[in-house]
Amino acid sequence: MLDAKHPKTLRGMYIGGQWVKAARNFADLNPNDGSLWAEAPDGTRADARAAIEAAHKAFPDWAAAKFSERAKLMNRIADVFERRTADFIAAIQAEGGGWYGKGAFEAHYIPEVFRSAAATCYNAQGDVMPSEYGKMSTAVRFPMGVISVISPWNFPGILTARGFAFALASGNTIVLKPSEDTPYLGGIFFAEVLEEAGIPAGVFNVITCSRDTVADMGDEMIENPLVKGVSFTGSTPVGRAIAAKSGAHLKKCCVELGGKDSLIVLEDADMERATQAANFGSFMHQGQICMSVEKVLVQESIFPEFLEKFAARAAKLKVGDTADKANVIGPLINDRQVARVKAQLDDAIAKGAQVVVGGGINGRFVEPTILTGVTPDMLIYQDETFGPVVPVIPFRTDDDAIALNNDTEYGLSAGIMSSDEARALAMAQRLETGMCHVNCSSVNDEPHVPFGGSKASGLGRHGGRWAVETFTETRWITLDRGGRPFPPVF
After folding, report:
1. Rounded to whole angstroms, what are the CA distances from 74 to 19, 81, 164, 312?
2. Residues facing residue 262 across a β-bridge
3. Could you give the CA distance from residue 110 to residue 125 in angstroms, rounded to a whole number?
4. Please, are residues 311 and 302 in contact by the beta-carbon 8 Å criterion?
5. pTM of the model as a whole
6. DSSP class of residue 452?
7. Which residues belong to any copy of the Aldehyde dehydrogenase domain (predicted)?
């Protein structure tokens, strides 16, 4: 178990079933106070190449393994992870800067990802189709080969597990590179767990690097001809570049990117439920969630009441070092993120927005902040914030709310609060989002559902059979039983 109070040298990268030291390490910081939490391996492009080659070598045997054996291994991974829950939560509080409750949620969710992946091993792997020529005509899904997985820092457990579990269960081999902000939580911890569970050598590999070398390592993970697919979760600008580079090499990619998600509150909404959904959706993990509520759209007739009760809830959230379980709002992950949030907040205030609650920034700690008077010319209206600052915007009609939601390049998730389900469902069908939740926050996920966005929020889907479709290729295979005739000239 890592002691969050004393810097540790992490075991190394995990390549071909071996722990591999890097030529140098980089500082893995605790975002609460900027202290050195661990020394992490600063890998190179050559390390990425070695991991890819190890995964390629292991692929034939893993792809040929019995589906039941792959399922058993997925379940063993879940069991080992459950035994390591305390270690994971402690690292979430320190390396990840997350609230204890957030860590507990991730730790209990992740085993279900692997159990859901195990279940897909028993699903049908294709279709039998009619044939005019009496053929036995089948469409069968096969694993692709080596899959590169690039995972983020904000939910490094869930989003890493989701990024590779279904691909692994489907018979692919994995090369995982976690974020340089969470190399342990998003990478090395998984290597420890999968090694203990008995993963065959080379089937699962982890490489880590600093921000200085991330572009070079990332290029190898996409451009190497042995890599057949790419799974990326992160920001839209980086996702665009990865998708473009993958396309240039004709490689399948699944990119789950940013959002500018709305919570739409209609006049018939339950006020208690609506304000809680807004508070959770806007400020959980400091708003550092791709599905975070970044615009609260409230019908004019209930706007004053909603704003008063929402502000009262937000004001009660405690801000501080996440070593203290009582502090629900921890630090932003790094100084770059603080600067981004501050720039949006300063721009909004300069252009006439009013701070209803919050607004303070102390180092990496940003108070839960509610704004009114936000207009389309402000950065906070246009761009993803990824911080605990949210505008509350009034609307008159359902059409107005839909237009406000769709007025963005993003299209990840949304929530609609209303006692009229038919009305809410009719609105949901017109929202340009990959997901929508009636009478709940935009922040929702389950391992077996089709998770993903539209527009600039991504391509492809994670979760359940949709992840299997994403990380396999379909082959048409026939058996000729009808003696299909060839032209006599042949």
Report:
1. 21, 11, 11, 44
2. 295, 414
3. 25
4. no
5. 0.95
6. -
7. 19-477
